[in-house]
């Protein structure tokens, strides 16, 4: 070999050594890629577990695009290194390969076919990507709907089991003979009617109780008032016994007091008050027929001064106006008749 060839050989050997020293990790990356592909084939869920957010088709598309770019770069580097290796082997080899125009034409035709196949595959892959982008939202909707239906089915199944368990317990708690639906409805209607009657009776009893309570309170107030009056009367009687020598006065006084109290009860007289020398106020508590509530009647009698002539009378507590009745009795100077007429109308509910 001449000197130029030896220098070229040395340059080729230096390039070979440099290539051997450079760590391209092509073989290791291929082994890792094969291992990952095998794992993903066994468990596809590792895709979403390995990279966060790869369930979104847009993120998956970005990841795939970056991987494709990386693989293209890796392929270019591989083809470049392969071409350099073949070139070095061709230069170093003693016998140069016989390459003519026909071989180049065959290689071009074969490359064109491979390019057509590759273009068709890329078109199909792009179509698949487009279909994935189109159908991914629909699939997600169907998945969410299916998951909701699955949860609803599980909930309904649990409710059905609970209902069956409750029905079994009811059957155990209520053995045969059981009520039929018509019999239960009839019994329910009867109970509703009975409860309505009891409710009405309860309201009536409550009204009676309230009335009795009011009367008891009124009687208690009256008893207290009578107790005070009795104490005052006893004091007056005791003082009169010291002044009066006749012993019949006490008996007559007691008889008069009892007669006055009996009269008050008979005519329902509550209070009597002399406002002045010619004015008398009378208050009655009358119970009208058919009504449990008592009605207060107030009568004001005005007399001519220094006489027993009735001058005028005013009545309060009645529903209707009885001015004509009052006028007639005033003209007749009939005080008892006026009081009797007013009380009669009050008891009649007028």
Q: How would you sum up the global shape? A: rod-shaped
Order of helices and strands: HHHHHHHEEEEHH
Strand tally, please?
4
Structural class: alpha+beta
Helix share bin: over 70%
Beta content: 5-15%
The Rg value, from CA coordinates, equals 61 Å
Determine the number of helices (DSSP H or I, runs of at least 4 residues): 9
The overall pLDDT average reads 80
Low-pLDDT stretches? 48-54
* End-to-end Cα distance: 154 Å
Strand neighbour order, sheet with most strands: 1-2-3-4
Taking the sheet with the most strands, its summary is: 4 strands, antiparallel
Summarize the structure in words.
The protein has 350 residues and is of the alpha+beta class. It is 73% helix and 9% strand. The chain contains nine helices and four strands. It has helices spanning 3-21, 26-42, 46-50, 57-92, 101-173, 181-243, 248-267, 323-332, 335-347; strands at 269-276, 279-286, 295-303, 310-316. The chain has a four-stranded antiparallel β-sheet with strand order 1-2-3-4. The chain is rod-shaped, with a radius of gyration of 61 Å. Residues 48-54 have low confidence and may be disordered.
